[in-house]
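Comment thread on ticket #2218

A.B. wrote:
> Attaching the input chain for the structure job we discussed in standup.
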Amino acid sequence: MPSSFEELTRKLADAIYLTVRYDVPDSTGDTRRTRNERFGEQSPEVRVPERGEHVWDWFWQLSARRKSGPEALTFADVGDWSRLLLVDPLPQEVEMLMAMDDAYLKAVREDQAAARQRAIEEARSRK
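C.D. wrote:
> Ran it. Output below, let me know if you need it in another format.
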């Protein structure tokens, strides 16, 4: 049986994945959620567990400081952030941040791959 930290970690990582896939605007400023609504399609609801809201906030603070593109957050990034802001995360919370980042990167890479595939298909259809 998973521990409460493992369960919370999974829920937070799932919420990050869904947020990136459905609520982050593309290059046109549109989100998958708004496109789905336009076509009458359902989108999954993002649920952030109340017990993890502080880790959710920490993740987005860290994520906003990425140096370039979808680069993985490092333990050094988390350590620097926590020292500078006087935040003292538990080791399990650091693990949550890393799992959330893995989910973030997975979603971003899936979106990038889908965009490349669409561009290839559009180019082929113009020939």
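A.B. wrote:
> Thanks. Noting for the ticket: The CA atoms of residues 12 and 56 lie 7 Å apart.
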